[in-house]
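Re: your question from the hallway

Yes, I did run it. Sequences:
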Amino acid sequence: MNLPRQNTASARRRTIKDTLIAYSFILPNLLGFAIFTLVPMVFSLVLAFMNWDGANVVSWAGLGNFKQLLRDTTFRIALINTFYYVIGTVPLTMAAALGLALLLNQPLRGRNFFRTTFFFPYVASLVAVAVVWNMLFHPAVGPVNQLLMTLGIENPPRWTADVNWAMPTVILASIWKGMGYYMVIYLAALQGIPAYLYEAAEIDGANAWQKFRNVTLPMLTPATFFVSIMITIASFKVFDLILVMTGGGPGRATNVLVIHTYNTAFKEFRFGYSSAIAMVLFVIVLVITIVQFRMEKRWVSYM
Amino acid sequence: MKKYYSISLLVILMLILAACGGGDTTPTDTSSAETQQVETAVETAAEEVAVEPETANEPVTLKMTVWDIATTPYWQAVVDAYEAQNPDVKVELVEISSQEYQDKVNIMLSGGDDTDIITVKDIPGYSAMLTRGQIVPLNSYVAADGLDLSVYSGAAEELTFEGSIYALPFRSDIWILYYNKDLFDAAGVDYPTNDMTWEQFDAIAREMTSGSGADTVYGTHFHTWRSTVELGTVQDGQNTVIATDYNFMKPMYDMVVAMQNDGTIMDYGSLKAGQVHYSGVFKNEQVAMLPMGSWFIGSLITAKNEGEIDFNWGVAKYPHPTGVAAGTTAGTLTSLAINTNSQNKDAAWDFIKFYSGPEGAKVLAATGNLPAVRNTEILDVFSALEGVPPEANEALQTAAVRLELPMHPKVGAVEQILNEEHELIMTNSVSVDEGLAEMTSRITEALNQ
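Structure:
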């Protein structure tokens, strides 16, 4: 009997050659990832246990940075503000995106125009968006407050100049900017729902709300899962919008974790401590994402 | 697969070690080695420079960091004067926008940039650069050339930290009071004098406030910088802004917050949200008085010459607390330092000497800026400039100048806290007392860390 001779040296050499060719295809991306993402991440992880001011010697700090985090009032405020921002942004953006997607899935006139318009803020320059929103919400001469005053509200909120209203203003700007992107994802998912499901529901006598609750929402769970993960991670990392709109102020009202990281690193030159804050943020996002993945099995149904 | 994992881990570890190895220079080692080299080099260079400044050995290009060249005429003017005297030296200006100047310079220097001359824009930046060994001490150069630092009227002492001076001041601005003569004439109110207390200033400002809506003329204007309010608190010399108890700031904050609530000045929130610049409100005749730095004189002269403004403006001495001599004011220093990584330190020193010395001062004064070297000759050049109001000569004479932000290793962290609390007080989010109490507790904590 002739056994196929698979274990010869030439067969092994061939496997190695194939593997090397495969690696050479992904090498450019892998190199870029390693140099610009992986190495800095590991460096940052190591730096969280060190003291460094950017120019002098690196010295070992052990858990000193993390102990100091517990005493730092600004860190506590930044942590609370970050959760405030996430809890405000995530559900509202998802709801807005879903609402827009449902609306723009109907056969309306000018539907494509509206889809483009709602997507546009996502690609608009963030600095331009922040500056324009500041102008709109200017406490004295901004159109929003002018409108509120003509409607009879004597002392409209002072938006970014008020500690209580600064975060809601930033959340609003963020929702407006991000909802277009997630609207597109929901649109694609909506268009993937087979029409016979709706027909079956109609035959069973379902009205619009029942169709939405029993056909649309369950079929959208994969997209919802994806959107919720993406938007949660992005919201924890918010930085540039807040920096341009309020600079973390007034006082520390909109100071979030990444802004605190930026201040400690580049204003106070404490790179070790700043890396420790970044590590805490990383762990928080990691835990939340793992929880979300664990819960996937319970509520996401792939038809 | 295991083999590939261990190899890739090894590579990553090696990369990390390489990155760590780069930042291992201790400042004390380099500076002592440098001063030895510098002393020998300066001895030979000093003779050459003293005898024949024109015959340098080979053409040298010096690079210097500056900001906003288009609106700041003196950078190029002094460079031209120096290059005329030293044809073998060329000076290249590296322009950085003034809003992000210090951040950008910090990153450049951390990356090992070799730009020779670093302009020091403010004290936190100065503190950051010298504590990290990024600029060299100039004591040996000063001693070798026998420079007398008393010509800077105490500015050199303000820049000295633990016995070493790391930058020479070339511009020393003081805070004065600008006012719109036409508005005062129209209201029939006497011009501000050179000897006003803050109470008198408050009274005049309230008298000059008039109109409503878009036609409002505000008595005065406090720009969003915390220094506009906090300068008045350190004039008596009893405290600095790095303190253990901030209650001494209460009178000034009470006055400014009252002015804001009564509509005598534009409110902080609107100014911050609209990013309103003080030059705009003064040039548009929306404010009758403006406490601001002397650098604004040059701006106003240019504006008048270009027809941007057509009203008469004047200057007076900065108001002072009761019991403090008139002419006591606050100052800011702009200085020049030499980068530790520079390859042309001696040529850079020669340029800095010129820029900060009497010759550079004359060019600076001719462009409408106040140099750090101040004697009657230079003040006369300044006052003789077309467009400078006649009372400027007297207004610019100072009894004592205090640095608004003194040199301290933790000044960066302190300023961050001061800015945050200032914002809270000025937006009426907290009362003045609460804000000052928080300032005290947070800064005490920061200084003890």
